[in-house]
Amino acid sequence: MFRRKLTALDYHNPAGFNCRDETEFRNFIVWLEDQKIRHYKIEDRGNLRNIHSDDWPKSFEKYMKDVNCPFKIQERQETVDWLLGLAVRLEYGDNADKYKDSTPDGAKNTDNAAKNAEPLINLDVNNPDFKAGVMALANLLQIQRHDDYLVMLKVKRLTQEAIAKASQSKEGLPVALEKHILGFDTGDAVLNEAAQILRLLHIEELRELQTKINEAIVAVQAIIADPKTDHRLGKVGR
């Protein structure tokens, strides 16, 4: 949990540090104050250095207040993490000139940086998992299969019907979702918004259906309202 920060501070045992071990914890606090934080003057660190004293917890609690630590003495992991963060900030402040021009290990090599920027550059197209994924995607998009998987990835499936529909689409008016009450809460803001959008789309579909129904009713009424009577057949109609 603390390994990265301990390593950055050159702690002697970053991988094996155990904050639950009382003796190790107290020694760690003394090391942190003496070597990194240095909030107290040297002559004022006596109580904190006396790790075998029964009053050490009180001295440590006072130390936490003096450095403005927001956690309680019982919250040991949170306290250690906060103190480590403080030490890292102070360490950087003391050595700003040393670190300001430093380059992350992953960016020292230009080729590595380029590879990190393009995560698909090392993609193995012959990997069975990759092929299976392409086939699954093709089935989902209803793309015609091809022996070359890369060709399938380049396919853009646009039917004439889809193109015609897209060309006829009209730009709609913006909708303020917050003005439309969902009626229930999923507990997730993103899901709530998606549900609102789906509801509005459903309402729009129902309106289109109602419009078509109304048009059909009008057409039927037009026929019924103007009957033609054939007296010879004794029927009413066309």
SSE layout and pairing:
Elements lengths: L2 H6 L13 H16 L8 H4 L6 H11 L9 H19 L1 H4 L10 H8 L10 H14 L7 H6 L5 H9 L20 H37 L3 E2 L4 E2 L2
Antiparallel strand pairs: 1-2
Protein name: RNA transcription, translation and transport factor protein
InterPro entries: RTRAF (IPR019265)
Family: Belongs to the RTRAF family.
What would the keywords be for this entry?
single chain; 238 residues; mainly alpha; 2 domains; two-stranded antiparallel sheet; 2 strands; 2% strand
Could you characterize the architecture of this molecule?
The protein is mostly helical and 238 residues long. It has 2 domains: 99 residues, no CATH class; 98 residues, no CATH class. The protein has 11 helices and 2 strands. A two-stranded antiparallel ribbon has the order 1-2. Strand 1 and strand 2 form a beta hairpin. The longest helix has 37 residues. The mean pLDDT is 74.
Question: Mind describing the biggest β-sheet?
Answer: 2 strands, antiparallel
Number of domains: 2
Helix/strand/pairing class, anyone? mainly alpha
Give the rounded overall mean pLDDT: 74
Count of beta strands = 2
Strand content: under 5%
Based on CA atoms alone, the radius of gyration comes out at: 36 Å
- Shape descriptor: elongated
In the sheet with the most strands, the strands line up as: 1-2
Low-confidence stretches: none
Number of helices: 11
Please identify the oligomeric state. single chain
Protein name: RNA transcription, translation and transport factor protein
Family: Belongs to the RTRAF family.
Organism: Nycticryphes semicollaris
